[in-house]
Amino acid sequence: MIEYILKSGAIALICLVIYHILLKKEKMLVFNRCFLLLGLIAAIVIPFLEVSFSTGVSAVSNGLAKLEYVIIGAQKGNVAVSETINWGFILRAAYGFITALLLMRFLYQILSLIRKAQMNKRSSRNGVVLVQTTGEKAPFAFWNYVFVPSSKTADTPISSEVLAHESAHVHQLHSVDVLVIELIRLVFWFNPVFFYFKKAIQLNHEFLADNAVVKDYKNISEYQDILLNSLTPSHNEFLTSSFNYNVTKHRLKMMYKHTTNRKRTVLAASCAPIFLAVALFFSGHSIAQDDKSTRTDRSVNSTYFKDATFTFKNKKGQDIYSDYEHLSEDKKGSLPPPPPLPNGEILKPLPPATVVVLTDDGKVIIKSKDEMLSLIHI
Q: For the whole prediction, is pTM greater than 0.70?
């Protein structure tokens, strides 16, 4: 689990750095949106992928390099038992508690927005549902709703540019992106990279909405004046897109920015090998053995474990006992090879009184009368 967290965080950080260095200042807004979303997907999916390489090397020689033998018992005498704090359980419990709180907050925000839309006066315009609200100073959008302060509609009607901006958020489904990143942040709340990922996604949404307004109304200077004159405390709900969100020089400059088709092609083409390199580096790697080496390994294990008794839990949590011959093929395949032998010694089977415990976390614990040896099979 720790390895997955580190890999996903590293992938997200790499994608975010590449975006800020190569893409953020370029006017290829739709591509940038796709890049950020693919970066999120890559961070979640790639650590689960496994790249397999075929080889004819026997698993006995390879497996020994991946095994660590640790004595966890004594051959004779009393076994000392020490009581320690289960920090793993405490950390898991704390993580679960914080995640549950954040999930409740997430659901509360969604329900509050839905309730606000249902409780206030609504009207439809160009495929968008306008909701007149009280207590808001700036318009904002969520899903197919545009929330407009009632003071704007009563005293000074909302400008067509503002409505076009918020409608662009709705038509381009920006709420979907925000919901995706928020769900990811629910799981990775401890990783600040995803917080900055959200900021990058939301700023790109503003670029896209501004671009839609500029295309329709052409007059960039007039639209910028509307932006600057509309600076009011924005709506603070983290699932929405507010009209004056992050009105910075980046948004104002982006309206005049032009990126040539050649540069767009070069930048877009350069991202493909980057994703491929990240996938190869951060995915899991396994060595696929050929049939001959696999048969040899099974033959060695069948000799070594033939007199032992195996115990493990089934899906219902019941204890199951079996000899090697009646183990499933999956169980046989999960067994590590025997420990290395000094030069000249012949492999001997385990004593008949040996019990081999197959744990759910992949450990193989071998217990005999005189000692208890743990084989940690990685």
A: no
